[in-house]
Amino acid sequence: MASIDGAHYFLTALVPVRRAWAKGSHGQTTAPIILLREKLAQMPTAMQTPERTRGGEISKFSQSTLTHFARFAVIDRLGFNGYVAADPVAQSLGLQHAVEHREELKRPYLLFAAEFDAPTGSRSYDLAVYLRELWDVMEEDLVAIFQHCIGFDRTKVTTAAEFINYIKACEIDTTMPFNVYYTDPPALPSLTARGLLIGAGVAGVVAGAGTWWLVQRWFPVLAIGLGILAALAGAVAFIAVRLKRYGDRRFPPTPDGNLQTILKALWLQTTFGRFVIANQAADDARLYEAFGAYLQQNKPDQPEPKHPAGKVVP
Questions:
Q1: What is the span of the domain harbouring residue 282?
Q2: Distances from the Cα of 51 to the Cαs of 42, 58, 229, 314, in angstroms?
Q3: Distance between CA 18 and CA 110 in Å, rounded?
Q4: Chain segment 151-199, per-residue pLDDT in tens
Q5: C-alpha–C-alpha distance, residues 85 and 65, integer Å
Q6: 251 and which of 6, 205, 304, 311 could share a cystine (Cβ 3.0–4.6 Å)?
Q7: What is the pTM (predicted TM-score) of this model?
Q8: How is residue 50 annotated by DSSP?
Q9: What is the pairing mode between strands 171-172 and 8-16?
Q10: In the chain, how many domains are there?
Q11: Distance (Å, rounded) from C-alpha 126 to C-alpha 118?
Q12: Could you tell me whether strands 109-117 and 67-75 are parallel, antiparallel, or unpaired per DSSP bridges?
């Protein structure tokens, strides 16, 4: 199913940006896209580099208990790979013409993409839970961003429920997940060639026989040809439907793939690596004692301590 896979929700919202000029923070008249870019540029990001870490500020997305990844981006024009050339021979005969125009967006758009936990698998419920939490932790920033977008009226969007409805109206289906945490291939049901051929054969026989029986009363000779065509069509349709249904199936939930477990795993990965380095030369007794202290301090079977969200190095 679109947008949910492996117990994760992949949100993609494309929000149209206003074109009517507005007043900036200093009273000047400015295009909304400029004000939007300024706001996005001023927002702190995750502490992913030493430069970001030294600033001391971190994205408010890190306060969310569900967000794995999140991104805002302004899309103001389409990618252009050059004009489409025509075949020289066809063009000389007047049968084909080169495409010499390029498509442009009528207005800029704000892209909001996020991946977050979706434990229930309900598209409506999990999205609402996430957006409600996001509204609680960063309402001020969300208002400052989306106020430059069409349909976001601050006098009307005042609650989490109204914000949820607004984002849902701008959501588009995500059919290609951009993150998974599988360490081993998931156990997925697979189609067998034998089963597919048997099913296609049965479907073909039913379709062909049914068509022949309906037509042979009036057109005996024609009924044979139509029956063969119907059999082929039935077999192909069966294969297509089966492949589509299998392709649309969700991946099973990722084992230990929720955000809190991932943060705990990152914490243990980092701290255990340091433990190994620090105890390279330790004898058995010292290593035993040090490992006991490590377990007591880091509590592998407990939620805390864990890696801080939004930081590369704890």
A1: 259-298
A2: 15, 12, 68, 15
A3: 10
A4: 998 888 999 999 999 999 999 998 877 666 888 887 777 888 888 889 9
A5: 51
A6: 6
A7: 0.80
A8: H
A9: antiparallel
A10: 3
A11: 5
A12: antiparallel
